[in-house]
Fold:
Amino acid sequence: MTRNILISGASIAGPALAYWLHRSGWAVTVVEKAGALRDGGYPIDIRGTATEVVRRMGILPHLRDAHIDMRRCTFLDADGGEVASVSPYAVVGSVEGQDLEVRRGDLAAHLYAMVRDDVEFLFGDSIDTLDQSAQGVDVTFHSGRQRTFDLVVGADGMHSHTRASLFGPEEQFHRYLGYCFALFTMPNTLGLSHELMMWNTPGKAAALYAVGDTDEVHAFLNFHRPEPPSDALRNPEAQRDLVATTFAGAGWEVPHMVDAMYDADDLFFDTAGQIRMPHWSSGRVALVGDAAYAPSFLTGQGSSLALVGAYVLAHALATNRDHTAAFAAYERDVREFVAMNQALVDNGAATLFPTTVRALEQRNTVLRGLDTLPSAPARPAHSALVLPEFASMP
Structure:
């Protein structure tokens, strides 16, 4: 008898998991609260083990075609003067010719295209309640419809509703890393192309990222704050005002960026943080990707962990008929990989955003030296997991 599973979330981890589970004979339903697939979004990285996942899915050539060929990272001082202009590979520890950087929407679109004909998608809906029994999980959706599934997986992001309903408030699992950030798009008034420009003063950073020869750039405003601004996290107006106050009087293009932020219809504001949980499942419900182990943007590994976690979870469910054994195998096989990548922040991944004058001077000295050095070696954490093989590969 075909087993059925509900996945909450249609970003990266959800469709990737849906692909591998469908291949293993599961009947898969994906519910997504957005009314349609979300396009756009900030560029994301696919590195190390995750590159092997997309190769096995058959979409690596497409993602290579979509690869953003960023050519330079230029770092600026408080007045907008150039500190250093270096290869992006030297800065982020990725491997030229192997690792990929693509628009988040491009990856999501490719994953969706792989499964849309074989998987049921419920857009514009979400899980309201979960009621577990020995036979399955009774799900009531926000729309009012009711269904029963053998298993449910939350792939609904760092602020996962599935996790909250099953394990309790996010505060128990959220590790705040001391930064807040705002992302949005704005006109490319500087004529940037395939490059990143980043302005820094202690505790503040502003960046413009042109992923091609387009009339828009991704804008990024990041600042250090000892405690998270809980009052602003659910209030877009308060978010804009907090950013504007923080960057008041800043140099370079920052005043124009703040003005553009007020006009932006795609503002995304959040804190840099991680999700750290002792267990990623309870009964017949499990979590994958950011919902279970968000590493934060400071590691650059969020999408890679989502792809790898989805693969390992699907493999565990394909090789263990009992879901309890499958969930245990999933945690056993991927937890160390997660821990290594989350620890990248502890090992200096936040050095691009120094919070003191001394730390900023030290970073700038390192950047000036990078100009004459070859690309940095890949970080071992990116490739620390050897993937198991599915019984039959395409």
Observations:
- The two ends are 24 Å apart (CA to CA).
- The CA atoms of residues 34 and 124 lie 5 Å apart.
- The chain has a mean pLDDT of 91.
